[in-house]
């Protein structure tokens, strides 16, 4: 399985990757994107099975990445990992086609529950 | 005019959650003694702004030792490993991003959160901002400060609610 982790913070990408391992989802191929445009490009070139994306990123934000993917026909599983976990943001994420939104700060248990919810 | 912002208790809960989740529960955040300040050494500052139904800025100020230790723990490195300035700035920015995002969720929406601004030194606040909440804390024996500032030109919804009640 290939997972794309998109976040403009290298530190946060490392935390997300470490938390995946702590949640019992280690051992997957990881691809990293440092902004939204790179995430969009890497979904097209790397064909990941899952995208874990920050919301607030330079070049293109996460919701625009997701909207572009769905508009182009991509149905890749997509979840947000973001500091903004309000009901309004969760509703926007779901409406755009996200499978889940994990709010920062998070725990391995939160990752486990979110990924189990999409059968991973 | 009463400016709206998160309560001390809410802000403390947000900061505590961020610190314990990513920096470990072994060193709790404690209230600082009055007039502790941030010391005379190098200070890192970070800020993120919220714009929309609520307009404000969240700032984090920490001494270099806290920034270095936080970066080590966030990256899962052993104490004393070499850190790049970019990684420290990244970690400090992510701290204010998480605190700012959670503060945004506590305030009226819709609104947008900016990307974090990080400086080695201090960041001067715009003159149209007024401090509405401030935490002076210590972590692992070192001081840190988290502040929330709101714009004066924003109607105070809390006051409106009281008047209409």
Jot down its keywords.
A: alpha/beta; Rossmann fold; 5 helices; 20% strand; globular; B: 165 residues; alpha+beta; Chemotaxis protein chec; CheX-like_dom (chain B); CheC-like_sf (chain B); chemotaxis (chain B); Chemotaxis protein CheX (chain B)
> So, CATH architecture of chain B?
3-Layer(aba) Sandwich
Q: Do you know the CATH architecture of chain A? A: 3-Layer(aba) Sandwich
Rounded to the nearest angstrom, the radius of gyration of chain A is 13 Å
Topology order of chain B in helix (H) and strand (E) letters: HEEEHHEEEEH
Describe the largest sheet of chain A: 5 strands, parallel
Instruction: Point out poorly predicted stretches of chain A.
Output: none
Shape of chain A: globular
CATH hierarchy class name of chain A: Alpha Beta
End-to-end separation of chain A: 10 Å
Structural class of chain B: alpha+beta
Q: What's the CATH topology name of chain A?
A: Rossmann fold
The tally of helices of chain B reads: 4
Oligomer: heterodimer
Keywords (chain B): Chemotaxis
Protein name (chain B): Chemotaxis protein CheX
GO biological process, one term (chain B): chemotaxis
Organism (chain B): Nocardioides psychrotolerans
Question: What do you see in this structure?
Answer:
The complex is a heterodimer of chains A (120) and B (165). Chain A has 120 residues and is of the alpha/beta class. In chain A, α1 (10-22) links the parallel β1 and β2. The model of chain A has no long low-confidence stretch (mean pLDDT 96). In chain A, 44% of the residues lie in helices and 20% in strands. The termini of chain A are close together. In chain A, α2 runs parallel beside α3 (62-71). Chain A is globular and about 35 Å long. Chain A has one domain (2-116): Rossmann fold, CATH 3.40.50. The longest helix of chain A has 13 residues, at 10-22. Chain B is an alpha+beta fold. Chain B has a single domain, classed as CheC-like (Chemotaxis protein chec, 3-Layer(aba) Sandwich). Helices cover 35% and strands 30% of the residues of chain B. Chain B is built from four helices and seven strands. Chain B has helices at residues 8-23, 64-75, 85-106, 157-164; strands at residues 29-31, 43-52, 56-63, 111-113, 117-120, 129-139, 142-151. The two termini of chain B are 18 Å apart. Chains A and B meet through α1 of A and α1, α2 and α3 of B.
């Amino acid at each position: 399985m290939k997972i794309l982790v998109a976040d403009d913070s290298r530190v946060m990408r490392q935390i997300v990757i470490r938390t995946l391992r702590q949640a019992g989802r280690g051992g997957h191929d990881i691809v990293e994107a440092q902004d939204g445009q790179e995430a969009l490009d890497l979904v097209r070139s790397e064909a990941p099975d899952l995208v874990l994306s920050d919301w607030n990123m330079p070049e293109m934000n996460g919701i625009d990445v997701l909207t572009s993917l769905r508009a182009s026909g991509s149905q890749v599983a997509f979840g947000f990992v973001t500091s903004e976990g309000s009901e309004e943001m969760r509703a926007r994420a779901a409406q755009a086609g996200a499978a889940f939104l994990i709010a920062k700060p998070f725990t391995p248990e939160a990752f486990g529950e979110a990924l189990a919810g999409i059968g991973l | 005019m009463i400016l709206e912002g998160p309560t001390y208790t809410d802000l403390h809960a947000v900061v505590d959650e961020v610190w314990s989740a990513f920096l470990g529960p072994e060193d709790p955040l404690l209230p600082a003694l009055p007039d502790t300040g941030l010391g005379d050494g190098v200070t890192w500052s970070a800020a993120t702004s919220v714009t929309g139904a609520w307009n404000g800025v969240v700032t984090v100020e920490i001494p270099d030792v806290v920034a270095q230790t936080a970066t080590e723990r966030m990256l899962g490195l052993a104490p004393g490993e070499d850190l790049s300035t970019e990684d420290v700035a990244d970690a400090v920015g992510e701290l204010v991003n998480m605190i700012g995002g959670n503060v945004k969720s506590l305030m009226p929406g819709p609104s947008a959160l900016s990307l974090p601004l990080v400086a080695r030194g201090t960041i001067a606040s715009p003159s149209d901002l007024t401090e509405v909440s401030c935490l002076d804390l210590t972590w692992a024996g070192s001081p840190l400060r988290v502040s929330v500032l709101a714009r004066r030109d924003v109607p105070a919804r809390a006051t409106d609610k009281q008047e209409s009640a």
